[in-house]
């Protein structure tokens, strides 16, 4: 029971991170029907930028860890969002009316570029960061095993919830969100009604990148090590999460992320750590077989 | 008017420079240095300045250029395939002739033939994937899985059961096709993009299994000592093992390591040409036409009585079979395989070859393979910039020619003449 | 009646959520006859077509196709089997051609099953056996015949997507005919045609009825087409049948007039 609870906590933490990345995939897919393959790398850049930003802010004399992290969070969100914007502007926008596979190939190319850019500029070696958050709460004390909820895990979950609240507000209550939903439903019609769809698409990439950058920051703190290669697997997992939840659905992305996180945590906890990725994908295939639109995806009536 | 243009270009350039500076600041401006005690930072702000200057000037120049040359006067490559229907045929034969003669040309040394062999592996893989993506329109991001199945089939059959390459080759193809059917059956009903993620996942699953099923695959250490193929029983070694004759002895030649390299080159050339021949032929058969029809409109296919699942499955399995052949060749050429060789990036390269070549175009695949695999081989020394340039080239070619280098499609049958050659 | 109808639709109901797109609909279509299904927009005509051709599965009802060798229950077949085994062919309201394949190739794909059998699932074709080339020649002959009928013989080697709209409509009919159907379902074949093309269409459709002896089922907005060529008219409104009969009678049916003219904002698609 204690062990189960601990895996639950670990899984939810991991899942929150996946969910934040997955939202970027699902939003972009919803609006331009494209798999943004470089999104995993945006998250990786977010991790690097957050690490650098944190070090810079401590160098500049910030002695308080909290202040340093806040400064890192804000600058990471801004700078990573800029990367998200630039990638769309350079590699995707010119291909808006191109054959369907062209943007995908361009995105794969972009992902290779960003990965190697980061390797070249920051080196291939793993970057360690000593733990900043120490301690936690002991939730339960068993005979052999005690369940811990660390302060860091609490922070990650709280931050995720806060971001989701803000994000849901933006999508449902602001004019930007309205324009975004309109563009998602029917881009041509939205454009006819005076929505600047190019700007809306840019905004979508910026929002996705912002959330991914926070995920990058969280992962830097959580695992304490990052390298240039983390974007690939996290990207695949997050995309799997988006599909699992029903691609195009925002709550679905979060749900999918949490599920993937839980599957991984429980699988590595109870079966084998080597095959945790296999487990996540197998669940995806099973879900798609029985619910082809994912868990929360709207069923699509075939237009004939 | 010119003043206004200049002003616009200047604005564009400055904006570009500012964005570039902001992008470069964290990643180029600072460098993480992990010394023994802790992680520290080094700075190199000069790089940021350079990045800003290059991007700014680049955008400035591009903007001026765009104004000077209106979009409709931008020189474009004429579509030769459409203008001269015979040109394609001539080019194809010329390329095949050149490929046959290559090892005997004066400038062909061992390393060139080796590189050409590598390019041909990708040409073959590209032609195999072209069936799936180019003809049937199924987005497969895990093609490398079938390549791996082929490679491990041969490696295991040869090292454990002592079977010969020529016996294992068809078996590897059958195994790979079998995996294709096994995977395809449940997932081919999914919509296109879902198929992409499932195949991508499948590719990773195969790799993870190869890595962790140590008893069977020897895990990350891979399988070494994979036997080399023989030519009708003639082996390519300096000294013949018991009961065998060496190639050099049989033809009264001095032994040379080049013989095997050239032999391997011809094996892959034959395999690749076989793939090409197969594709050219099947495109003119009902199943091939059904693949293309499915790519065009699945609902119309169903209204004509075509069962989409079976048609997709046949394309998927056929493509996988050729990947299996290529995989077993890869294993015998390297003599050593490990899961390292079958990462996602391989699938991406093969897909890029198909899409950059122009979906469905056989010659396009050759050009793209030369460009993406052959060219970087010459820049081995620039190892660390190689992949950066590779990714950049993928983006640039797509921006330049979104439907691929050669995208013209000729009908597979014309009225009054029956099938065209 | 002594002879069975070609198509017997009984109590078919198709719901989307709470909306009854087709509600308890029964009618028959005779062989060697043109049956028209008409009705205002949103009356459920295309949904009915999608049920008959298997793209949708109705929740309730039975659809029987009476072949010479016995009845076939359409609702039990997959869409592709309805085309292949029950031999019901159809066209689409938004033309669905294989745009980047040639006109001739479109017609050859329609003869897929025959050619697959002849080529022994492509194996005989791969080996270049004459058995296949003979079958292919026959297929081309059939394609040529239909291209001639629809007046597209000169454009046989063009990409289907490059044809003008009216020609694409005719090509779609030719493609459907290449599957040797016993029932041909046409979803608004006259939509977007000019008066001259519309007249040509009429003679093409009556020609198919008279020469091939098959049944035609068509959805149409263009009343002139309906009144001129159809032998029987079924009128739908809100998913239910409000009238059926010979065209001359339908014209004066008060329920029909009400359905069409009673709605002041009735608009054409």
Can you walk me through this structure?
The complex is a heterotrimer of chains A (304), B (421) and C (269). With 304 residues, chain A is mainly alpha-helical. Chain A has one domain: ABC transporter involved in vitamin B12 uptake, BtuC, CATH 1.10.3470. In chain A, 73% of the residues lie in helices and 5% in strands. Chain A has eleven helices and four strands; from the N terminus they run ααααβββααααβααα. In chain A, the strands form two sheets. Chain A has a two-stranded antiparallel sheet. A two-stranded antiparallel sheet of chain A has the order 2-3. Chain A is globular. In chain B, β1 and β2 form a beta hairpin. The C terminus of chain B is likely disordered. In chain B, α5 runs antiparallel to α14 and α15 packs across α16. With 421 residues, chain B is mainly alpha-helical. In chain B, the strands form four sheets. Chain B has a two-stranded antiparallel ribbon. A two-stranded antiparallel sheet of chain B has the order 3-6. Chain B folds into two domains: 68 residues, no CATH class; 324 residues, ABC transporter involved in vitamin B12 uptake, BtuC (Orthogonal Bundle), CATH 1.10.3470. Chain C is globular. Chain C has two domains: 176 residues, Rossmann fold (3-Layer(aba) Sandwich); 79 residues, no CATH class. Chain C is of the alpha/beta class and 269 residues long. In chain C, α3 packs parallel to α7 and α6 packs across α7. The model of chain C has no long low-confidence stretch (mean pLDDT 86). Chain C is built from eleven helices and ten strands. Chain C is 39% helix and 23% strand. At the A-C interface, loops of A face loops of C.
């Amino acid at each position: 029971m204690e062990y189960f609870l601990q895996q639950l906590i670990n899984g939810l933490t991991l899942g929150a991170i996946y969910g934040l990345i997955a939202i970027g995939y699902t939003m972009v897919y919803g609006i331009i029907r494209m798999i943004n393959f470089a999104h995993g790398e945006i998250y990786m850049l977010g991790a690097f930028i957050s690490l650098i930003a944190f070090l810079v802010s401590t160098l500049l004399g910030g002695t308080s860890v909290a202040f340093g992290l806040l400064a890192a969070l804000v600058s990471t969100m801004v700078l990573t969002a800029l990367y998200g914007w630039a990638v769309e502007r350079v590699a995707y926008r010119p291909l808006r009316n191109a054959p369907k596979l062209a943007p995908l190939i361009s995105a794969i190319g972009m992902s290779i570029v960003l990965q190697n850019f980061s390797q070249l500029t920051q080196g291939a070696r793993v970057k360690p960061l000593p733990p900043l958050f120490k301690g936690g709460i002991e939730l339960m004390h068993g005979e052999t095993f005690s369940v811990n909820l660390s302060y860091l895990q609490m922070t990650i979950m709280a931050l995720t919830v806060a971001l989701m609240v803000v994000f849901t507000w933006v999508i449902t209550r602001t004019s930007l969100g309205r324009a975004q939903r309109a563009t998602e439903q029917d881009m041509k019609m939205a454009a006819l009604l005076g929505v600047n769809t190019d700007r809306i698409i840019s905004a979508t990439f910026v929002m996705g990148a912002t959330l991914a950058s926070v995920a990058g920051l969280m992962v830097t703190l959580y695992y304490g090590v990052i390298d240039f290669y983390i974007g690939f697997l996290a990207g695949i997992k997050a995309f799997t999460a988006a599909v699992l939840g029903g691609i195009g659905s925002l709550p679905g992305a979060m749900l999918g992320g949490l599920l993937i996180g839980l599957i991984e945590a429980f699988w590595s906890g109870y079966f084998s750590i080597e095959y945790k990725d296999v487990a996540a994908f197998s669940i995806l295939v099973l879900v798609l077989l029985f619910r082809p639109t994912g868990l929360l995806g709207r069923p699509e009536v075939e237009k004939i | 008017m010119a003043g206004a243009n200049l002003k616009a270009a200047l604005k564009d350039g400055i904006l570009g420079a500012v964005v570039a500076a902001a992008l470069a600041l964290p990643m180029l401006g600072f460098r993480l240095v992990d010394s023994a005690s802790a992680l520290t930072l080094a700075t190199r702000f000069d790089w940021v300045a350079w990045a800003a200057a290059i991007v700014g000037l680049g955008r400035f120049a591009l903007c001026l250029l765009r104004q000077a040359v209106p979009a409709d006067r931008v020189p474009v490559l004429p579509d030769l395939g459409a203008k001269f229907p015979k040109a394609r045929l001539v080019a194809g034969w010329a390329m095949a002739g050149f490929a046959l003669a290559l090892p005997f040309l004066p400038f062909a040394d061992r390393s060139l033939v080796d590189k050409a062999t590598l390019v041909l592996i990708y040409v073959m893989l590209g032609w195999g994937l072209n069936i799936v993506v180019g003809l049937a329109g199924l987005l497969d991001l895990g093609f490398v899985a079938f390549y791996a199945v082929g490679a491990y089939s041969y490696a295991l059959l040869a090292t454990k059961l002592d079977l010969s390459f020529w016996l294992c080759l068809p078996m590897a193809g059958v195994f790979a096709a079998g995996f294709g059917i096994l995977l395809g059956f449940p997932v081919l009903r999914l919509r296109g993009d879902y198929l992409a993620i499932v195949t991508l996942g499948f590719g990773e699953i195969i790799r993870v299994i190869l890595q962790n099923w140590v008893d069977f695959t020897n895990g990350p250490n891979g399988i070494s000592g994979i036997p080399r193929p023989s030519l009708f029983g003639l082996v390519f070694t300096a000294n013949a093992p018991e009961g065998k004759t060496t190639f050099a002895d049989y033809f009264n030649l001095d032994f040379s390591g080049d013989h095997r390299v050239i032999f391997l080159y011809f094996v892959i050339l034959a395999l690749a040409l076989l793939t090409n021949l197969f594709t050219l032929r099947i495109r003119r058969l009902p199943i091939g036409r059904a693949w293309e029809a499915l790519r065009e409109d699945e609902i119309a296919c169903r209204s004509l009585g075509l069962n989409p699942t079976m048609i997709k499955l046949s394309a998927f399995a056929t493509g996988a079979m050729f990947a299996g052949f290529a995989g077993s060749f890869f294993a015998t050429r390297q003599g050593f395989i490990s899961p390292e060789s079958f990462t996602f990036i391989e699938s991406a390269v093969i897909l890029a070859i198909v899409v950059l070549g122009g979906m469905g175009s056989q010659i396009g695949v050759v050009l793209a393979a030369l460009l993406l695999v052959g060219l970087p081989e010459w820049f081995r020394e620039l190892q660390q910039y190689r992949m950066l340039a590779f990714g950049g080239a993928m983006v640039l070619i797509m921006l330049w020619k979104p439907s691929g280098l050669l995208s013209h499609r000729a009908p597979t049958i014309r009225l009054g003449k029956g099938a065209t050659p | 009646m002594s002879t069975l109808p070609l198509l017997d639709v009984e109590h078919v109901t198709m719901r989307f959520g709470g909306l009854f797109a087709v509600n308890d609909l029964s009618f028959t279509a005779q062989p060697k006859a043109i049956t028209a299904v008409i009705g205002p927009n949103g009356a459920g005509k295309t949904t009915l077509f999608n049920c008959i051709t298997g793209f949708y599965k109705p929740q309730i009802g039975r659809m029987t196709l009476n072949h010479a060798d016995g009845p076939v229950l359409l609702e039990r077949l997959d869409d592709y089997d309805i085309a292949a085994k029950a031999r019901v062919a159809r066209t689409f309201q938004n033309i669905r051609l294989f745009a980047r394949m040639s006109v001739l190739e479109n017609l050859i794909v329609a003869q897929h099953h025959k050619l697959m059998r002849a080529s022994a699932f492509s194996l005989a074709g791969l080996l270049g056996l004459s058995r296949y080339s003979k079958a292919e020649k026959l297929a081309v002959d059939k394609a040529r015949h239909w291209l001639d009928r629809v007046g597209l013989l000169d454009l046989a080697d063009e990409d289907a997507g490059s044809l003008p709209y009216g020609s694409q409509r005719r090509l779609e009919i030719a493609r459907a005919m290449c599957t040797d159907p016993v029932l041909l379902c046409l979803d608004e074949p006259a939509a977007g045609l000019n008066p001259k093309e519309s007249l040509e269409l009429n003679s093409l459709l009556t020609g198919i009825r008279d020469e091939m002896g098959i049944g035609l089922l068509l959805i149409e907005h263009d009343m002139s087409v309906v009144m001129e060529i159809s032998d029987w008219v079924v009128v739908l409104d809100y998913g239910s049948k409000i009238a059926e009969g010979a065209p001359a009678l339908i014209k004066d049916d008060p329920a029909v007039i009400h359905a069409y003219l009673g709605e002041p904002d009735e608009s054409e698609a």
